[in-house]
Amino acid sequence: MSGFWNQAFDLSGRCAVITGGAAGIGLACASLLVERGARVALLDRDPAVAEVAASLGAGHLGIVVDLRQLDQVQSSIDSVFAHFKRLDYLVNSAGVVMLDKAIDVSENAWDITLDINLKASFFVSQACAKYMLAQGSGRIVNLASQAAVIGLDRHVAYCASKAAIVGMTKVLAMEWAPHINVNAISPTIVETALGKKAWAGEVGERAKLQIPAGRFAQPDEIAGLALYLLSDAAQMITGANMVIDGGYSIQ
């Protein structure tokens, strides 16, 4: 690997916040960033998040937080900065999906979905951006979904929230340039522990038939794209929505 690439993907001394970092895509991103030298702060509602952070090695943080509570969001980001003395990266990975036909979606299900997927992503970004802008640099990756660009049965609240993430990403990228790059990743079904459970058996096999690549994505594949977007190799990429869906949405 050339000197440019070694330097671009060397995250030594950098610090990252990862929401939903205790499991799934968030944990895959955290593990890869740590492997490349970064220190990470995992924000998650799972009480085990501190243990998960400790399992990544010394010097990492795990903070239990309800991302629907903006006072907890702000205090968590303040605590991360106070601990690391800098804040370079944010990966907004926390998310929820509550499935129902549009005619039957409840106000509570709608509010929970939009609060966690969209509102929390914005206000975590805002809290982090205040520190990033002050230090003159930063990178943000928002986890959207292929549901941001296509319609899916029983996913009306989820599709709405993820489409809004893409729109939000464009505005933040525009307003916070040139100091902060903001991009989105839109995966297809990802084989996390929850993904494997939700898409097991016949329903999963039918879904794979709709994907030209013939399979679901792996958490490490999403983490790899996140690493690229956070790295110095992607300095000229901002406001993009990077679809990683095996060709699903091009049909």
UniProtKB/TrEMBL annotation:
Gene3D superfamilies: NAD(P)-binding Rossmann-like Domain. The keyword Oxidoreductase applies. Belongs to the short-chain dehydrogenases/reductases (SDR) family. It comes from Pseudomonas brenneri. Coiled coil: none annotated. GO terms for molecular function: oxidoreductase activity, acting on the CH-OH group of donors, NAD or NADP as acceptor. Keywords: Oxidoreductase. It comes from the Bacteria. SUPFAM superfamilies: NAD(P)-binding Rossmann-fold domains. This is 2-deoxy-D-gluconate 3-dehydrogenase. The keyword Calcium does not apply.
